[in-house]
Amino acid sequence: MMDSELASETSLLQASPLASPLLGVNDVDPVFEQNAGGRSPFLFTSDHYGRLLPEKLGDLGLPESELVRHIAWDIGIAGVAERLADMLGAHLIAQRYSRLVIDCNRSPGVASSIPVISEATAIPRNEGISEGERAARRREIFEPYHRRIDAAIDRRLHDTRPAVLVSLHSFTPVYAGVARPWHIAALYNRDTVLPQLLLKHLRAEGDLVVGDNEPYAVSDLSDYTIPVHGEARGLVNTGIEIRQDLIADRSGQQQWAERLARIFAEIELELRRERLVD
Ligand SMILES: [Zn+2]
Q1: Is the C or the N end of the chain the one with fewer CB within 10 Å?
Q2: What pTM was estimated for this model as a whole?
């Protein structure tokens, strides 16, 4: 091989990681949106809405039985989020690819952003991936999703319309062998308004085991959406976690969406009364 040939091959190799796209012609846009023109003050996000895998990543080295579990996505939340957004006329921004490709509720760079193990399951395809592939997952999935949320918030602030951020999630009823009794929970860190209002309403339902920052609390290390879009931008915000077995089927999703739509309508009135939204 001539030196010049070697040189051009080396430069191709160096250029390829960043240039190499992750999503191909058969892959859909990572961002799912509903009611983008909705007038509700609430802006719903769903970081773990979908469990799609880019064609290029195959099955990540996992059997189908793992790819339908909570490690891949938030089971049931898509059905709740879509119904709830429709009932309230609220904007929903959601991410369609599996959290096993890149977790959109983690800072890129932390170990759980592109996990090599989730709960007790090793993710073979995530072992030893190049910086180029890591960058592609961030550039093509993580960033478009968060840019869209940013833009939606910018727009509302520019138009002096309220932006109340609600980050929707679901949790597994058993994690690492420990059962979780809560039906639903408010998750938060710095917001002192909305999580407390939500907790008050959920407890008033009378038939719910309500978690207050259970099974985990929001933090800067373990979360991205609330700290970055909610707290850093000074928005009233909360996270919601619903136990997956309650929303696994359509009737459960419908019931929980109806319940939450009723509660959020009441919360909107209270926020307006307190001039926290106007
Ligand atoms: Zn989640």
Answers
A1: N
A2: 0.92
